[in-house]
């Protein structure tokens, strides 16, 4: 299922290029001392509840509600990207930081599951497999990640520790990329609006196919709201599993989009205590590779959360073919699969061969100048 192609230039704050921002201050919101105290107060008030049972109803506070609603409006209806600074990460344990961050994130929507284990907050850090092998999961690897989308309306990253070197985050506006393609290669848009099948990386229930039985559009347009949903590392393995190759024009469309996203990106080096809140289906994001140090404080640790917004504010079109998972009741994220945790390593994917895992890793690498997308 595809939507009508948007044929006019998008003139909106969301259609930005990285060169539009001089520094972080242009997109920053600084937590006040009172707002930090309010988050810590919420954590104390909800201490008797398991973290995952804390909801928005528990997290209201006069110091936070109005201010964070303003952040939400900027993420949903403004530029789609806000850096929130001032989380007291050095004053708390990792578990305490998770509860503070959880209380903060509830102001943007219910937190969604990131995997078939049901985890609704993920520690993004390197976890090496036996033999020094890097996991296929990007959240557990130190490898670079190419431009992609996550699986919820809003995603947020809180930096607890920086890497010794590298680990910068990049963001690129989907509407701005659409403008560039419309201006120079509009003939490629039909392919990008049709999209491609996606590999579900074995996060689906056992009775569902590993590859979507439908194409997931990369660009969609509903009520003049442009949506981007592009994850090359799900597309290439899907075509490989189906025994299908890209056509020459499909390769051209993929390569052109990837190049535009990199050319227009904004790169941010998050410091400890800084979080970035992002309108996921308004932009793609990526990460540089990194090297950790020899102490925990010099090893990259980022907390990731996914939130779902109301249908009124949803950018991703509603419909089975616009999302790569077939979750119950159309939810975003990944529905938990009973019995999977404990049976499958959290570093690994269920029933994924070494060859397919290596293909995931290869497709997560950023395109190099002069290279073309593999044929599948």
Quick structural overview:
The chain is an alpha+beta fold and 376 residues long.
Give a description of the structure.
The structure is a single chain. The protein is an alpha+beta fold. The chain has a single domain (18-364), classed as Double-stranded beta-helix (4-Layer Sandwich), CATH 3.60.130. The chain has eight helices and 14 strands. Helix 1 (33-45) packs across helix 3 (94-105), helix 4 packs across helix 7 (248-263) and helix 6 packs antiparallel against helix 8. The two termini are 22 Å apart.
Total E-strand runs: 14
CATH architecture: 4-Layer Sandwich
* Continuous helix count: 8
Strand order of the largest sheet: 1-2-11-5-14-3
Number of domains: 1
Give the CATH H-level superfamily: Clavaminate synthase-like
Order of helices and strands: EHHEHEEEEEHHEEHHEEEEEH
- What fold name stands as the CATH topology? Double-stranded beta-helix
Rg calculated over all Cα atoms: 20 Å
- How much of the sequence lies in strands comes to 15-25%
Give the CA-based shape. globular
The major β-sheet equals: 6 strands, mixed
């Amino acid at each position: 299922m595809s939507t009508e192609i948007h044929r006019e230039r998008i003139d909106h704050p969301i259609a930005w290029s990285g060169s539009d921002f001089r520094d972080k201050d242009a997109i920053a919101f600084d937590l006040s001392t009172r707002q930090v105290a309010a988050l810590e107060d919420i954590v104390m008030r909800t201490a008797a509840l398991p973290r995952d049972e804390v909801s928005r109803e528990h997290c209201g506070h006069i110091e936070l509600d109005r201010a964070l609603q303003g952040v939400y409006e900027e993420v949903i209806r403004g530029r789609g990207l806000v850096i929130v600074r001032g989380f007291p990460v050095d004053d708390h344990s990792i578990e305490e930081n998770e509860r503070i961050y959880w209380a903060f994130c509830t102001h943007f929507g219910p937190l969604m599951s990131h995997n078939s284990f049901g985890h609704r907050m993920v520690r993004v850090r390197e976890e090496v497999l036996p033999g020094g092998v890097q996991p296929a999961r990007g959240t557990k690897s130190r490898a670079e990640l190419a431009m992609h989308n996550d699986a919820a309306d809003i995603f947020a990253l809180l930096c607890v520790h920086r890497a010794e070197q590298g680990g910068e985050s990049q963001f690129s506006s989907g509407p701005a990329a659409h403008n560039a393609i419309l201006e120079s290669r509009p003939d490629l848009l039909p392919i990008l609006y049709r999209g491609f099948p996606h590999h579900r990386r074995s996060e689906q229930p056992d009775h569902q196919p590993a590859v979507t039985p439908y194409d997931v559009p990369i660009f969609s347009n509903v009520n003049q709201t442009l949506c981007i949903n592009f994850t090359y590392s799900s597309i290439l393995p899907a075509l490989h599993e189906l025994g299908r190759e890209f056509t020459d024009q499909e390769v051209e469309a993929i390569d052109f989009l990837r190049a535009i996203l990199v050319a227009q990106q904004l790169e941010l080096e998050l410091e400890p205590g800084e979080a970035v809140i992002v309108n996921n289906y308004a932009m793609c994001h990526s990460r540089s590779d990194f090297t950790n140090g020899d102490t925990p404080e010099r090893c990259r640790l980022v907390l990731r959360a996914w939130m779902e917004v109301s249908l009124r504010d949803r950018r991703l079109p509603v419909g089975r073919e616009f999302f790569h998972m077939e979750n119950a009741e159309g939810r975003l994220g990944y529905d938990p699969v009973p019995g999977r945790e404990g049976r499958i390593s959290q570093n690994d994917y269920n029933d994924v061969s070494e060859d397919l895992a290596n293909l995931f890793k290869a497709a997560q690498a950023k395109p190099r100048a002069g290279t073309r997308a593999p044929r599948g």
